[in-house]
Write a structure and sequence with these properties.
The complex is a heterodimer of chains A (218) and B (102).
Chain A: H1 16-51, H2 53-62, H3 65-90, H4 94-124, H5 142-178, H6 188-212
Chain B: H1 11-32, H2 39-59, H3 67-93
Helix pairs in contact in B: 1-2
Classes of the chains: A mainly alpha (218), B mainly alpha (102).
């Protein structure tokens, strides 16, 4: 086993394999708490959409479907480069790892930039809940229309917060990769960061149809 | 159970998953403009679940991980189902029984 200087096996593990499995199992356990964290918001969405179907259709139609679809593609692209970064770390190719990590951070920043443009539009169009002069065209009840945007901002906001944390995490991973800290034996830190990034991607995969694609026909 | 060395997934596999995810995104957006009645939701959620499954199995390596990892992931989804099912069981049935004084 050609262990590099940093590919350390902690004394409480029998093998690198056991160490790797423990790391990803621990990360998955954390992600389960994240599923329940976002799950509460998805639950609130299900109830309010059941109660206020017309307002949710009107709210959804007011969102920019082009920006939403493009952003979904960008986030999927960032998951692809993240997977390639982890793969490069597994093969001990630190320069490639750094490249793919930076690509992932750039795509993540592009997603957040588009999100910021969308948030700005909400303020311009008086679509922010609680904003004086709030008006959602096609919504029978303006109060119920505000509820759609409460959930829109809560869900996409919590998601964006996770992306910012993820980008920070990838910054640390880039620094570690540049210093040659990953090897075939021990690349647990970047593997777990990858799991986090992909999880945030999955949350968006569900947010996109639930927020942008309701009542588009007719 | 994987061997002592880590399972490295071919770039080709990752690329195919990436292309499939992009195609599914285009499909779900296109399908949203077709009037399918109540099935529109079913189609949108089926496509999203398929995309999420691909990400979990390939990008997140669950397909190449131990059965313990698969069990933990399944348990997480099961708990989410409990959250949604029991909450809906409450709200759906509230009107079934007359409550005095209400």
């Amino acid at each position: 086993m050609s262990a590099s200087a940093h590919a350390r096996l902690a004394h409480h593990f029998d093998s690198y394999e056991q160490q790797r499995e423990s790391a990803s199992l621990g990360m998955w356990t954390f992600l389960l708490t994240e599923i329940m964290f976002f799950g509460g918001l998805f639950m609130a969405y299900i109830l309010y959409r059941w109660w206020y179907p017309l307002e949710f259709m009107a709210g959804s139609r007011s969102l920019d479907i082009v920006l939403g679809t493009v952003n979904t593609g960008i986030l999927i692209g960032s998951s692809f480069t993240m997977a390639l970064a982890v793969r490069s770390a597994q093969l001990d190719r630190s320069r490639r790892t750094v490249f793919f990590l930076l690509a992932t951070i750039v795509l993540g920043a592009a997603f957040l930039g588009i999100k910021a443009v969308e948030y700005h539009d909400k303020f311009l169009h008086h679509h922010v809940p609680g904003q004086p002069g709030f008006h959602l065209a096609g919504a029978p009840s303006q109060a119920h229309g505000q509820m759609f945007f409460v959930l829109y901002f809560a869900m996409t906001g919590l998601h964006a917060l996770h992306m910012i944390v993820g980008a920070g995490l990838l910054g640390v991973m880039t620094w570690m990769a540049a210093r040659g800290r990953f090897s075939a034996e021990n690349h647990n830190a970047i593997e777990c960061s990858g799991l986090y990034w992909h999880f945030v991607d999955i949350v968006w995969i569900f947010l996109f149809p639930l927020l942008y694609l309701v009542g588009r026909h007719g | 159970m994987s061997g002592p060395s880590v399972h490295v997934v071919p770039v080709r596999t990752y690329f195919l998953i990436f292309l499939t995810l992009l195609a599914m995104t285009a499909l779900t957006t296109a399908a949203a403009f077709v009037d399918m009645g109540p099935f529109g939701n079913v189609v949108a959620m089926a496509i999203a679940s398929f995309k999420a499954t691909l990400v979990v199995l390939f990008f997140m390596h669950v397909r190449y991980s131990t059965r313990l990892t698969s069990l933990v992931v399944t348990a997480g989804l099961f708990w989410l189902v409990i959250l949604v099912a029991l909450t809906l069981a409450d709200y759906f049935t509230r009107g079934w029984l007359g409550v005095p004084g209400r």
